[in-house]
Design goal:
With 300 residues, this protein is mainly alpha-helical. The radius of gyration is 19 Å and the shape is globular.
């Protein structure tokens, strides 16, 4: 039982809701346009969760063997760092997770597109492999992009654009203009979650030569960057509400602006990096809330 709990900790359950926010939003748009499919929905959820778990395990492994996760780190203790899971055990788990992720991705694409949309199917197969590669290369290997301040770009692309637009295309077999602004919104907020994590670990990451945007920008500028991400998401989602307004229900997701603005207030006043850790969960759950309410607002 204790070993099971250790593996649950390595999976990082609190990161999983954020990963499916784009799927939920895209599915609402698909339902509105009459192209929703329960098979695609559940397979997309499972595939996305497998990618996120793979990314978490790979991150634990990569930072663990490089010594980035050490006693100076502020965040939760990691599996390899603690010694409760050996690098070999974690690496074997990663290999199994890769097979599961690829299998789920291929099954999802075949279910949604089959052979009747050959080039679209081929494109999504490549996208699935790219997603696996992105999950692994964040901290693993000598050229890990997470050590070169590129993690934010990949999170924006995969958590925002690929998650929302890609999932919608699986339903509709075409792109619809309605998904662009929501995809950017979710991408910005997801990037904000990563940036907040990097703000918390900025000092220990710098000492370990892990160059994130937080390390690159420094204490003052990274807060300006964080404000830009969150405020931009509010502006873009607000523009979406105006452009696609049908009734007062179209504005219901703006309730999520309240915790977002309170979050910015706390971040801007922060002096102790450890105090940023609770804000990670709040921002992630607020992103999920906004995605759900935005999707429902479009349906009502």
């Amino acid at each position: 039982m204790q070993k099971f709990l250790i593996w649950l900790s390595a999976i990082r359950l609190r990161t999983l809701p954020l990963s499916i926010s784009g799927i939920i939003l895209a599915s609402c748009f698909a339902y509105y346009n009459g192209v929703f499919d329960w098979g695609i929905f559940w397979l997309a959820i499972l595939t996305t969760l497998s990618f996120q778990i793979l990314s978490n395990l790979a991150n634990d492994y990569g930072d663990g063997i490089k010594g980035t996760d050490n006693n100076n780190r502020i965040g939760p203790e990691r599996a390899v760092q603690s010694g409760k899971i050996t690098p070999e055990e974690l690496f074997n788990a990663i290999k199994i997770n890769v097979l599961i992720s690829i299998g789920l991705a291929f099954f999802l694409v075949f279910w949604a597109l089959g052979v009747s949309h050959f080039w679209l199917t081929f494109f999504f197969f490549l996208l699935g492999l790219a997603s696996v590669g992105a999950a692994l290369r964040y901290t693993m290997g000598n050229n890990a992009y997470g050590y070169k301040a590129l993690g934010d770009v990949f999170v924006f692309v995969f958590f925002g654009l690929v998650s929302v637009i890609g999932c919608y295309v699986l339903y509709a077999k075409q792109v619809d203009h309605v998904v662009y602004l929501p995809a950017i919104t979710i991408g910005l907020l997801s990037t904000g979650v990563l940036n907040l994590n990097n703000m918390r670990d900025r000092v220990s990451d710098k000492d370990s030569n892990k160059i994130t945007m937080a390390v690159k920008l420094g204490e003052k500028n990274v807060k300006i960057y964080h404000n830009t991400l969150i405020i931009s998401s509010i502006i873009i989602s607000g523009l979406f509400a105006v452009l696609y307004y049908t009734s007062a229900f179209s504005l219901m997701f703006m309730i999520a602006y309240i915790p977002l603005l309170l979050h910015l207030k706390r971040v801007n006043r922060n002096k102790v990096h450890k105090d940023l850790d609770p804000e990670l969960k709040k921002l992630a759950l607020t992103t999920v809330l906004l995605a759900i309410l935005m999707g429902l607002a479009f349906l009502l």
